[in-house]
Amino acid sequence: MMARSMARVARTLTGLLWLTCAAGLMAALLADTATVAPVVYSAEVDAIIHPVSAEYMIETMDRADRSGAALVVFTLRTPGGLVDSTREIVTHMLAAKTPVAVFIGPSGARAASAGFILTIAADVAAMAPGTHIGAAHPVAGNGEKMDDTMAKKAAADVAAYVRTLATSRHRNVPLAEEAVNESRAFTETEARTASPPLVDLIASDVPDLIRQLDGRSINRFDGTPVVLKTAGAQVVPVEMSLRQRVLSTIANPTIAYMLMSLGMLGLTIELWSPGAILPGIVGGVSLLLAFFALQLLPVNYAGVLLILLGLLLFGLEIKVTSYGLLTVGGLVSLVFGSLILMDSSVPELQLSLWVVLPVVVGFTGIAAMLARLGVRAMRQPPATGEAGMIDHIGQTLSAIEPDQPGRVAIHGEIWQAASAEAIPQGAAVRILKIDGLTLTVRKN
Fold this sequence. Notes:
This protein is 50% helix and 17% strand. By secondary structure, it is of the alpha/beta class. The protein has a six-stranded parallel β-sheet, with helices on both faces. The longest helix is centred in the first third of the chain and has 34 residues, at 2-35. The radius of gyration is 39 Å and the shape is elongated. It starts with a helix and ends with a strand.
């Protein structure tokens, strides 16, 4: 009986010991969980807003959602971009589980046009000192000037979109609308001190922004209140993938123009010299990359046609005797086509004259060189066939009399020859003309 009681007591003590250990382990786990630092994802967008940059921003937000991050910060510097890509980013931003902050920085940066819309749509909008936002009036996707009706429709559509975003984010709706309809721009002080403000904070950099956001209460787009906890946050930088960096680089007006010029030059050389292979391969790849870039940029297709016309005129100069007029026409067409290729009011979307001139001069020099070679070849006497034998020197194998033809050796062949004068055997003779299989010669 005593043994049973002792066994019961031992089991009870063992159970209590296990419960004590489990409670201690649970307390330790809870303490560790409580001390885990929040995670903030940080990404820089220093590019035109196009499908590549949209993909990068969306992937960053998805990654933050999957990891349960406390915040996503986009450091934004952009002259603008495509409305479709902007809407795609905003749609994802509004549906993201993780709060999104857009920070215009560093000092001297700007977020114009599409960048302004992204700033208004963010959960937190912040600017660095010396930055500005605004100028969000829409332009045609191909860079051409829209007629008044289309311009009003486009502006009204974007203005309504911005009003919706500004209202839901409790930001200054009239100023946001003026940024679209009147292309107004605002400094960080103007945007912050407006009533209500356009942006929430002015921060010197991303760490300063994260510090200021700790404990700040915000409302998500659906009205859900969230208190940001960013104290001691672990900042995780998110970089573009190699593919995204390459595609974003070529989606630049200057790079796209250089690729298009290189592609056309390569294909033109391949057509002039069939079988060269390398110029054709380089030209084809460059042209395909240029077409990809141009579909992301505001391209004026009249400029593309003028460039193609210029290259056609350069090619015709070799075939048609125009005494340089076709080359001059090609030069003019290429210059004007290049200058209007990127018809945009945004400096970053325009082609510099210092980029256009070297390309035009290069094409002109190549065309002039090929034209010169073509003219020189046309002026040279024939080197093959019957015409190539005229004025060549041969040697008589037998005597030739005015009324008695003889034989002449020339180019390793033996021909029958006639002459108006007597020519002895073994004499050098010059070919005057060819009549069928008989040469007319004279003594050299």
